[in-house]
Write a structure and sequence with these properties.
six-stranded mixed beta sheet; alpha+beta; five-stranded antiparallel beta sheet; Nucleotidyltransferase, domain 5; 431 residues; elongated; 17 helices; 3 domains
Length: 431
């Protein structure tokens, strides 16, 4: 028995008469084309959106945006690979009308149009809002590390240079100005669960719970999340246009000062409070929760009946230390269960009342909603769109440009799943 054989290369065949016949009516390329065709590229800030009257003609920025959206949906982010695909990929031939832009033109478009691309992504979210898809009641916030272009050695050298410049600034400002800055000052070492400390950016996302759409995102250089609660919650509310919004996040966002600011802006925060515990005596001693705070007198009452008065204030950490009298602790029958020192000192955060309310709202149901809402988009971004969670462009601006394209591609994919591609295409088309 022989093998399965193909047709002879010289045999005549009847191919479709046009490229349009090769793509199904609900193909992903038709979604991209319908979306980009409806954008006001000039208003969004894309250069050359209107052709110049003189000079060599340039590429339509809409075609280059179509190319990048297709590429990110197919895990093709390199400008050289995109150029190659334009010459052999039938789907891209249909999408771009057989255009094959040079890889330099492709790369330059992404480098220069970060803000315009972000505006196009915001337009997509506003379209979803106009279609009454976004309810805007619940938003989940989370952050994840994406590796930067810089190597560990270059970031370490840059940090050493920054310390050296700081010393020069302190000694002589004139000398410090003569030392050149590093070309990429933004990336920092951050801890990744699987790779340890790596040069990375912290990507923040706010995901609407009903649709799973990423309604706001930000590329930051902050290694932790505890200063990102208010900025991301504010961005999400601006996009959704609601007066009151429920924000759910993990304990990494526990920050009393930011939680209070959220409450003042009608942003209802559901976050587990990240509290320290009494680790003296191998953790067996009485915890701070056993002490009752008197708001009117600004003192704390201990279980033994003693009164702890304000001793010290730390403005940087927004915490207050309350100390019990030495004589009262020495005569207390509960001292062995309370402290090994001469007297007990209890630290209270100035935003304890806000943290208590925030923690009480972080119910198991709210935390389950957080996991179901915000973790899948990061998995899609990292391994379905990026392929590997690593940026290709240097600096915060370059990383932000890449993330803007990736988030827009994710939202197009998500809306295609929610509405069905055919229905999505019909709703995108005017009239």
């Amino acid at each position: 028995m022989g093998h399965i054989t193909g047709e002879g290369r010289g045999q005549s065949a009847l191919f479709p008469l046009s490229l349009d016949d090769l793509l199904p009516a609900d193909h992903a390329c038709r979604v991209i084309d319908a979306f980009v065709s409806g954008l006001d590229l000039q208003a969004l800030g894309f250069a050359r959106s209107r052709p110049a009257a003189t000079g060599r003609p340039g590429y339509d920025p809409g075609d280059l945006l179509r190319l990048y959206l297709y590429g990110y949906l197919q895990q093709i982010r390199s400008s050289r690979r995109l150029e190659t695909e334009c010459g052999r990929n039938i789907e891209l031939m249909w999408l771009l009308g057989r255009l094959v832009p040079d890889h330099k033109v492709i790369a330059e478009f992404r480098r220069l149009h970060g803000e315009a691309v972000a505006g196009a992504g915001a337009t997509l979210i506003q379209w979803a809002k106009a279609q009454a898809l976004l309810q805007g009641d619940w938003v989940a916030i989370d952050g994840s590390k994406f590796r930067a272009v810089s190597s560990k050695r270059s970031v370490a050298a840059r940090d050493a240079l920054a310390r050296y410049l700081g010393e020069l600034d302190a000694a002589d400002a004139a000398e410090s100005s003569a030392v050149a800055a590093h070309p990429e000052p933004e990336a920092h070492f951050m801890r990744s669960p699987n790779e340890g400390k790596i040069p990375a950016y912290n990507v923040q996302t706010a995901v609407e719970a009903t649709t799973g759409l990423i309604v706001a995102h930000e590329v930051t250089t902050a290694a932790g999340d505890n200063r990102q609660l208010l900025p991301m919650a504010t961005k999400a509310r601006e996009v959704l246009g609601t007066q009151t919004l429920n924000i759910v996040a993990d304990a990494g966002y526990s920050n009393g000062e930011q939680a209070r600011a959220c409450e003042e802006q009608n942003l209802v925060v559901h976050v587990p409070a990240n509290r320290s515990v009494n680790n003296q005596g191998d953790g067996t001693l009485m915890d701070r929760r056993a002490f009752i705070y008197d708001v009117d007198q600004d003192v704390m009452q201990c279980p033994g009946g003693a009164t702890l008065v304000r001793k010290q204030v730390h403005r940087a950490t927004r915490s207050v230390h309350y100390a019990a009298p030495v004589a009262a602790c020495g005569a207390c029958a509960l001292k062995g269960q309370c402290t090994t020192a001469d007297r007990r000192i209890v630290t209270r955060h100035r935003d304890d009342d806000v943290l208590d309310r925030m923690h009480a709202r972080a119910t198991p149901e709210a935390m389950r909603l957080r996991r179901c809402t915000v973790e899948r988009p990061f998995a899609e971004l990292k391994y379905r769109i990026f392929g590997l969670p690593r940026f290709l462009l240097r600096g915060t601006r370059g990383a932000a440009s890449e993330m803007a394209i990736a988030v827009m591609a994710f939202n197009l994919k998500r809306l295609s799943s929610l509405l069905g591609r055919g229905q999505f295409i019909r709703q995108l088309q005017p009239g």
